[in-house]
Amino acid sequence: MIPSVLPTYSRAPLSFVKGEGSWLIEADGRRFLDLGAGIAVNALGHAHPTLVTALTNQANKVWHVSNLYDIPQQQKLADLLVELTFADTMFFTNSGTECCELAVKMARKYWFEKGAPEKTDIITFDGSFHGRSSAGIAAAGTEKMVKGFGPLLPGFVHLPWDDEEALKAAITDQTAAILIEPIQGEGGIRPLSDQALKDLRALCDEKNILLILDEVQCGVGRTGKLFAHEWAGITPDIMMVAKGIGGGFPLGAVLATEEAASGMTAGTHGSTYGGNPLGCAVGCAVVETVSDPEFLANVSRQAGALRQGLEGLVAAHPDVFEGVRGSGLMLGLKCKASNIDVVNAGYDNEVITVPAADNIVRLLPPLNLTDEDIAEATSRLSAAAKQVEKAI
Question: Cα angle at 328 between 326 and 334, to 5 degrees?
């Protein structure tokens, strides 16, 4: 008999009932160190007092009015992000998947309005993940994502990851945009170099195409900058943001320049819940906290300390791990043993990690994890590695 919750996830047998900072408490009382943060969502950990206050204050006023009316909290968050980023305008969503749908629509509508309706192709890359909507799975193009869901939305061109020559050869008169994650998350914590991002921006300018960045997982402070592309000193035309921006409340946004968004006029897109007062009140609190230079500097410090601990972990357990990769607090342990075995051994040792492609174990902890959290992380991961070693 099918369960009442559609069985699309292979769930771990854990039920968390409370969270405190970087820690989750299971129904049986066990305390788990959370190095997954809800897959890079809980940017400020669990039950952060600033977010709790923002949510409860707004909950006592108004929850939902719809986008038929002005929403002061939405306007405040939009103004804040315009001040902090490349963007001139934005549309708020409930998820990264919804961001992908709009980013694709925005790019194609831009060229239609410019008198070039033939420019519909969007270049994407092996290992990418842009959500599980029709546009998202078509953009990824992998068998795992698309098998059984045809016919697929056309207009996506799939290329090898970080292959400049293949990219140049693929651009045609039908190319509308390049869509890429500065750091692949689901694809196995694969970062683009700063130079590769610079080259991408230059190529888009040269060929007169749009650059769309998917910073759903790597954005909102995770790399030590508010957004990962800032390290390269470039800006996109369109950017997808979600996960961390809501700190656990469902929230996303598509940020764009005035030029790139020029085709999106009244009636071209909508969302009943997107940018609702509750989500935007929390989003404001998250962005105000994370964008503080001292907070971002501390992210970089803690990232350095965590990475140092992980490098020691790899050296101590060469039969389990091969190396560490990633940026900031978006790190991956490349495994020799099965990454799933490592994740499951972590559960046994009360530490939460997240698997990814290429036999990677992802570490996506809260951005405000403490020195004590880092010490505990290396200790518990070491215990998990020892458990895996015994089974090899």
Answer: 25
